[in-house]
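Dear Dr. H.,

I hope your travels went smoothly. While you were away I took the liberty of generating a structure for the chain from your last submission, since the lab meeting agenda had it listed for discussion. I wanted you to have the full record in hand beforehand rather than looking at slides cold. The sequence, exactly as received, is reproduced here:
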Amino acid sequence: MSATIEYRLDGRRWTHSFTSRRFGDEELPDVLGESGLSLDRFLDEEGGWILARPA
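The corresponding predicted structure, in token form, is as follows:
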């Protein structure tokens, strides 16, 4: 998914564009490892948020 968020504060305006991809439980350790990270734990019961730490 790609999206752009627009922020407005005190008369200022800026945008943040990003692309997001969902990874399965099997893919996640490898994807994190490619960035020098490792999975510490899941932060919610659904597994939608994680805590990753330097490997």
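Two observations you may find useful: The radius of gyration is 15 Å. Helices lie at 28-34.

With kind regards,
E. W.
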